[in-house]
Here is the input.
Amino acid sequence: MKTMLFFSLLLFSSNTYLNAQDIAINSQHALAIRVLIGEYTDARKNKDSILLNKILTKDIDQLVSSGTWRKGKNRSLEGMMNSSSNNPGERTITIDNIRMISSGSAIVDTRYEIKNADGSVRKMWSTFVVVDTGDEWKITAIRNMKPAE
Here is the structure.
Protein backbone atom coordinates (compact mmCIF):
# COMPACT_ATOMS: atom_id res chain seq x y z
CA MET A 1 0.00 0.00 0.00
CA LYS A 2 2.84 2.40 0.87
CA THR A 3 4.57 1.56 -2.38
CA MET A 4 1.43 2.30 -4.37
CA LEU A 5 0.94 5.60 -2.54
CA PHE A 6 4.58 6.54 -3.17
CA PHE A 7 4.30 5.86 -6.91
CA SER A 8 0.99 7.71 -7.11
CA LEU A 9 2.54 10.78 -5.48
CA LEU A 10 5.60 10.51 -7.70
CA LEU A 11 3.44 10.29 -10.83
CA PHE A 12 1.26 13.23 -9.74
CA SER A 13 4.21 15.47 -8.84
CA SER A 14 6.14 14.70 -12.04
CA ASN A 15 3.04 15.32 -14.18
CA THR A 16 2.45 18.65 -12.45
CA TYR A 17 6.11 19.58 -12.92
CA LEU A 18 6.10 18.70 -16.62
CA ASN A 19 2.90 20.63 -17.30
CA ALA A 20 4.32 23.69 -15.57
CA GLN A 21 7.30 23.90 -17.93
CA ASP A 22 7.57 26.87 -20.24
CA ILE A 23 6.99 26.20 -23.90
CA ALA A 24 9.85 27.56 -25.98
CA ILE A 25 8.87 30.17 -28.52
CA ASN A 26 10.16 29.59 -32.02
CA SER A 27 11.42 32.45 -34.17
CA GLN A 28 8.44 32.31 -36.56
CA HIS A 29 5.94 32.67 -33.74
CA ALA A 30 7.99 35.42 -32.08
CA LEU A 31 8.13 37.38 -35.33
CA ALA A 32 4.42 36.91 -36.07
CA ILE A 33 3.48 38.05 -32.56
CA ARG A 34 5.78 41.09 -32.78
CA VAL A 35 4.21 42.01 -36.13
CA LEU A 36 0.73 41.61 -34.61
CA ILE A 37 1.50 43.95 -31.70
CA GLY A 38 3.05 46.39 -34.19
CA GLU A 39 -0.13 46.29 -36.27
CA TYR A 40 -2.19 46.95 -33.14
CA THR A 41 0.01 49.94 -32.28
CA ASP A 42 -0.29 51.31 -35.83
CA ALA A 43 -4.04 50.76 -35.89
CA ARG A 44 -4.50 52.65 -32.62
CA LYS A 45 -2.16 55.43 -33.76
CA ASN A 46 -3.98 55.81 -37.09
CA LYS A 47 -7.47 55.09 -35.71
CA ASP A 48 -7.70 52.26 -38.25
CA SER A 49 -10.83 50.29 -37.36
CA ILE A 50 -10.44 48.06 -40.45
CA LEU A 51 -7.02 46.82 -39.31
CA LEU A 52 -8.24 46.43 -35.72
CA ASN A 53 -11.22 44.40 -36.95
CA LYS A 54 -8.82 42.10 -38.80
CA ILE A 55 -6.43 41.46 -35.88
CA LEU A 56 -8.94 41.01 -33.04
CA THR A 57 -10.85 37.81 -32.32
CA LYS A 58 -14.63 37.97 -32.33
CA ASP A 59 -14.76 37.27 -28.59
CA ILE A 60 -11.99 39.69 -27.54
CA ASP A 61 -12.28 41.34 -24.19
CA GLN A 62 -10.39 44.28 -22.82
CA LEU A 63 -9.96 45.61 -19.30
CA VAL A 64 -8.81 49.23 -19.51
CA SER A 65 -6.91 51.18 -16.86
CA SER A 66 -10.11 52.91 -15.65
CA GLY A 67 -11.49 49.50 -14.69
CA THR A 68 -13.99 49.35 -17.56
CA TRP A 69 -14.55 46.00 -19.28
CA ARG A 70 -15.09 45.91 -23.01
CA LYS A 71 -16.42 42.52 -24.04
CA GLY A 72 -16.79 41.44 -27.65
CA LYS A 73 -15.33 42.89 -30.81
CA ASN A 74 -17.96 45.61 -31.31
CA ARG A 75 -17.63 47.08 -27.81
CA SER A 76 -13.84 46.77 -27.91
CA LEU A 77 -13.55 48.48 -31.30
CA GLU A 78 -15.92 51.26 -30.26
CA GLY A 79 -14.02 51.79 -27.02
CA MET A 80 -10.63 51.80 -28.76
CA MET A 81 -11.76 54.34 -31.34
CA ASN A 82 -13.30 56.58 -28.66
CA SER A 83 -10.22 56.28 -26.47
CA SER A 84 -7.88 57.19 -29.34
CA SER A 85 -10.01 60.28 -30.06
CA ASN A 86 -10.53 61.29 -26.41
CA ASN A 87 -6.92 60.61 -25.38
CA PRO A 88 -4.86 61.88 -28.29
CA GLY A 89 -1.13 61.47 -28.20
CA GLU A 90 1.71 59.46 -29.60
CA ARG A 91 1.23 55.82 -28.58
CA THR A 92 4.21 53.53 -28.10
CA ILE A 93 3.98 49.85 -27.19
CA THR A 94 7.22 48.06 -26.39
CA ILE A 95 7.25 44.30 -25.90
CA ASP A 96 8.99 43.22 -22.70
CA ASN A 97 8.24 39.50 -22.80
CA ILE A 98 6.45 36.85 -24.84
CA ARG A 99 5.53 33.68 -22.98
CA MET A 100 4.00 30.77 -24.85
CA ILE A 101 1.22 29.06 -22.87
CA SER A 102 0.53 26.49 -25.58
CA SER A 103 1.74 25.95 -29.11
CA GLY A 104 -0.99 28.30 -30.34
CA SER A 105 -1.33 30.91 -27.60
CA ALA A 106 0.89 33.36 -25.79
CA ILE A 107 0.92 36.11 -23.19
CA VAL A 108 2.66 39.30 -24.33
CA ASP A 109 3.72 41.79 -21.65
CA THR A 110 4.36 45.32 -22.87
CA ARG A 111 5.06 48.85 -21.77
CA TYR A 112 2.37 51.17 -23.11
CA GLU A 113 3.07 54.90 -23.22
CA ILE A 114 1.03 57.82 -24.51
CA LYS A 115 2.97 61.04 -25.02
CA ASN A 116 0.55 63.94 -24.58
CA ALA A 117 0.63 67.24 -26.48
CA ASP A 118 2.01 69.00 -23.39
CA GLY A 119 5.01 66.64 -23.35
CA SER A 120 3.87 64.59 -20.37
CA VAL A 121 3.89 60.82 -20.75
CA ARG A 122 1.21 58.47 -19.44
CA LYS A 123 2.98 55.21 -18.60
CA MET A 124 1.07 51.96 -18.35
CA TRP A 125 1.48 48.21 -18.69
CA SER A 126 -0.48 46.20 -21.23
CA THR A 127 -0.78 42.46 -21.38
CA PHE A 128 -2.07 40.85 -24.55
CA VAL A 129 -3.31 37.29 -24.89
CA VAL A 130 -2.77 36.22 -28.48
CA VAL A 131 -3.88 33.10 -30.33
CA ASP A 132 -2.89 31.39 -33.54
CA THR A 133 -6.07 30.94 -35.56
CA GLY A 134 -4.34 28.65 -38.05
CA ASP A 135 -3.98 31.38 -40.66
CA GLU A 136 -2.66 34.20 -38.49
CA TRP A 137 -2.14 35.39 -34.93
CA LYS A 138 -4.89 37.51 -33.38
CA ILE A 139 -5.46 39.36 -30.13
CA THR A 140 -8.09 37.77 -27.89
CA ALA A 141 -7.62 39.74 -24.65
CA ILE A 142 -5.98 42.98 -23.51
CA ARG A 143 -5.32 44.11 -19.94
CA ASN A 144 -4.16 47.70 -19.40
CA MET A 145 -3.02 48.92 -16.03
CA LYS A 146 -1.14 51.76 -14.43
CA PRO A 147 2.07 50.62 -12.76
CA ALA A 148 2.46 51.04 -9.03
CA GLU A 149 4.48 54.15 -8.30
